[in-house]
Structure formats: C-alpha cells, structure tokens
Amino acid sequence: MTKLCVVPFTLLLLFVSCSARPIYQLPSKEHKGSKQPLQTSRPYNVAHRGSNGEFPEETSAAYLRAIEEGADFIETDIIATKDGVLICHHDVNLDVTTDIADHKEFADRKRTYEVEGGNITGFFTVDFTWKELQTLRTKQRYSFRDQQYNGKFPIITFEEYISIALDAPRVVGIYPEMKSPVFINEHVKWPNGKIFEDVFVETLKKYGYKGSYLSKDWLKQPCFIQSFAPSSIVHVSNQTDLPKIFLIDDVTVLTQDTNQTYSEITSDAYLDYIKSYVVGIGPWKDTLVPVVNNYIQAPSDLVARAHARDLQVHPYTYRNENQFLHFEFHQDPYIEYDFWINKIGVDGLFTDFTGSLHNFQEWTSPLSISDNIDGYSAYLLHKIANMLQKYK
Ligand SMILES: *[C@@H]1O[C@H](CO)[C@@H](O)[C@H](O)[C@H]1NC(C)=O
Ligand SMILES: *[C@@H]1O[C@H](CO)[C@@H](O)[C@H](O)[C@H]1NC(C)=O
Ligand SMILES: *[C@@H]1O[C@H](CO)[C@@H](O)[C@H](O)[C@H]1NC(C)=O
Fold first, then answer.
1. Is 305 exposed, middle or buried (0-12, 13-18, 19+ CB in 10 A)?
2. Is the pTM of this model over 0.85?
3. Which residues contact 291 (CB under 8 A, 6 or more apart)?
4. Which of 142, 134, 160, 136 is nearest to 61 (CA)?
5. Where is the signal peptide (predicted)?
6. Mean pLDDT score of the chain, rounded to an integer?
7. Which residues are CB-contacts of 98 (< 8 A; sequence separation ≥ 6)?
8. Would you say residue 375 lies in a domain?
9. Which residue range is the domain that position 276 belongs to?
C-alpha cells in the first residue's frame, strides 16, 4: 500500500503546489467517503469497559480513548434504571464506581438485595430513575489507577454508547452484555410484558444493528451480544441473528439463571447444544490456563474443544499492572499477549489497555492489505493464506 501511493503522490506534487489530496484518488474509489472497515484478519481488540485502565470505566471518555487507541470493539455492561432506561454500568450497585456516597439526598435508598446467590448492601440502579442517576458522577474502580478523572463524567445510556461507536471515524464494533438479567427482571418491569432482554434487542434494532457474523450488514455495524445467562441468549436468538458470545465465569460460580456448574456448561454435550445459539465463548482466562501461586499451569482443553466446534474464544481480562501479570510473563504485558495470541490461539481479547494490545498487534501482525479492503474479502484472503500455509 505504501509503495503504491508514494510514487504517484510524489509525481503529483510536481504539478500541484498545495495539498494534492483532493485531486489524488486513493485506489479504493468505491470506499470514498466510507469508513475504514473493521479488521478481521487478527484477534479482536475488545476494549473492556472502554479504555478503563486510563479513564473511569464505561464513560464516554473511556470509549473515545479506546477508539483513538485502536479498539476493534468497545465493550459494555447493560443494566437498567427503575424507570426502565438501559444504561452502561458494570455493577448492579453504584457504590464502587460513582460518587453516590456524597449524595445525601439519596441516603434513604440504601438496600440489601440477593444478587446471583449472595447478599449485597448498597445503592442499586434499579431504585433510581434515569433523571436521578444523571446527577451522579463516575470514579475509577481501582485505587492504583489514575484518580484525576473522578467526579468528571456522568453515567451514559445504552443509546449514548451506541452513538459513540457509530460516530467513530472508522468502523468500530459494539460488544454489549445483557448483565445480571435475573436480578434486573426481578426489579424492573417494562410495558406490555416485555422483559429486559426484549428491550435490549429493540435498542440494537432501533440503531440498525442486524445480520449474522461477517454478513454485509454486520460488517457495516459490527456487534457481539454477550451474556453469562444461557436462557437470555436462547431468548434473544429468535429476535436477532447478531452473533452471540456465551460468557463463562470462574470454576466455582453457578449460572445465575439455570444454576449449572462450570463443568456442566463446558462439557462436550453442552458446547454441542450452545453452539447453535452462539458463535463463541468468553471464558475467564484463568479457567483456560489455571494459575497456582501466580504461576500458570498446563492449559485446559477448552480452547481446543471450542475450536473443534468452530466456536471462537474471547477470554477476559487482560490488564497491564504487575499484580495482574503471572510470573511467567515477567511483568511484561506484551509477553502475556504473545502467549495468548500465538500459543493459546484465542480469537479476541478483552483488555483494560486497548493501546497496549493494539501496539503489540501492530508490531507483530501489522494490517496491510486488509485495512484497505472490506472485511469479508480480508477474511477470505486470511483463510486462503492459512490454506496455502499447509502446503509450504
Ligand atoms: C440474604 O438475606 C436474607 C434476609 O436476611 C436471607 O433470608 C437470605 O438467606 C440471604 N441470602 C444469602 C444468599 O445469604
Ligand atoms: C421466540 O420464541 C418464543 C418461544 O421460544 C416465542 O414465544 C416468541 O414469540 C418467539 N419470538 C419471535 C420474535 O419469533
Ligand atoms: C443450585 O445448585 C446447587 C448444586 O449444584 C444446589 O446446592 C443449590 O441449592 C441450587 N440452587 C438453586 C436455587 O436451585
């Protein structure tokens, strides 16, 4: 690409004194005015809660930064307010990542609720209207991360998050989770008997999200729907053909809706069942490669069993800080990315530091042809290259 355009551009400069850009036609005329497509030739860079390593999670600032840093997808957790507005917020309560404690006018809203098998005391989004939540400001979850943005950014809605992705200067996908659906449906009611999952899909449709994985519609507005609750995935399966990812928790956690164990939901029989609803799984990375005393152990066979069924594997969560890096990675996040991408062979990575993953991928597998042609052609070229590799 560089070679192709440098020569004519230099020639043109002989004739045009000022900016030659409006006269010089880039090779892909049909993409004139359209956005740079989603790359599909290397594992997806999924910006976990935005670039939350730098900014308070799930804020406009975190998402804009992630887009600037090269995210393929911006990721979020969708829950609801008392009046049924879908918002981006990870926890069902507001205590850790907002300034709710400073709002004395809401002091009487403190509650204890049973959430996914445990009791939590705090301030819950389901007890506040959207108007009330707009008066809060977010803060950084971890004390060892930058605190200077605390109190600056509001919570955003699902629709605002979608708008951030659609307004990006290149095609940026969304990766929303139907979060804690059992709890949300227990506390929030929508008109006409609709449930949380229905309203979630309606919102995606309202903004034009549709189509199966790698279809033309999908490549225009890429989206993965994710959930830990298999019944939510099954419920939305006949409402949208957007690709779905089944999230898998730690080995000790039971599914919130069907009360199944880790070994049940990762069995061959279960993967055979769920594969008709999903294009992949999203496991916690330490369940794929167990860790003892901060040393990684032999990888489990889950990645191989998923790939054998043509299921993608998008593990979570990659974090740069020393306390999250296992000893074999020598406190170097690039060694961790190299291990997961090149040894384990995952298809997408949820990272708190989009910029680091992007830099690693640009250095080790830079985009060349594929960033100038549409995603489906890139995908085909990638498949062909892989096939040729076998005959070398
Ligand atoms: C939560 O608290 C309620 C009321 O005290 C109690 O009945 C219930 O067993 C508790 N649930 C758990 C999971 O501890
Ligand atoms: C989806 O299937 C359920 C039953 O599993 C049915 O009640 C519902 O009407 C279906 N929805 C659509 C949009 O087809
Ligand atoms: C969930 O399953 C566990 C055993 O795996 C059982 O002890 C527990 O009572 C079950 N909970 C519910 C709500 O059915």
1. middle
2. yes
3. 297, 326
4. 160
5. 1-20
6. 90
7. 136, 137, 138, 139, 155
8. no
9. 12-365
**CA 342, CA 11: separation in Å to the nearest integer?**
42
- How far away, in angstroms, is 238 Cα from ligand 2 center? 6
> What is the rounded average pLDDT of the residues 300-316?
98
Tokens representing 221 are 């507005």
- CATH at residue 139: 3.20.20.190
Measured distance CA(149)–CA(56) in Å, rounded:
7
Q: Are 297 and 291 in contact (CB under 8 A)?
A: yes
Q: Say if residues 227 and 246 touch (Cβ distance below 8 Å).
A: yes
Which ligand has the shortest distance to the CA of 241?
2
Q: Please report which ligand is nearest the Cα atom of 240.
A: 2
Burial profile 78-107: b = 16 or more Cβ within 10 angstroms, e = fewer: bbbbbebbbbbbbbbbbeebbebeebeebe
Q: How far apart are CA 59 and CA 332, in angstroms?
A: 27
Q: Whose CA is nearest to atom 4 of ligand 2?
A: 235
Give the tens place of pLDDT for each residue, 104-162. Answer: 999 999 999 999 999 999 999 999 999 999 999 999 999 999 999 999 999 999 999 99
Asked whether residue 389 is domain-assigned, the answer is no
- Asked whether residue 373 is domain-assigned, the answer is no
Total structural domains within the chain: 1
Cα of 70 from ligand 1 centre, angstroms: 44
Cβ(238) to ligand 2 under 6 A?
yes
Structure tokens at 250: 């730690």
Give the DSSP per-residue string, 70-137.
T-SEEEEEEEE-TT--EEE-SSSBSTTTB-GGG-GGGGGG-EEEEETTEEEEE-BGGGS-HHHHTT--
Distance CA 359, CA 369 (A): 18
Does ligand 2 have an atom closer than 6 angstroms to the CB of 239?
Answer: yes
Let me know if residue 226 belongs to a domain: yes
Q: CA 203 to CA 208: how far, in whole Å? A: 9
What span, in angstroms and rounded, lies between the C-alpha atoms of 92 and 184?
8
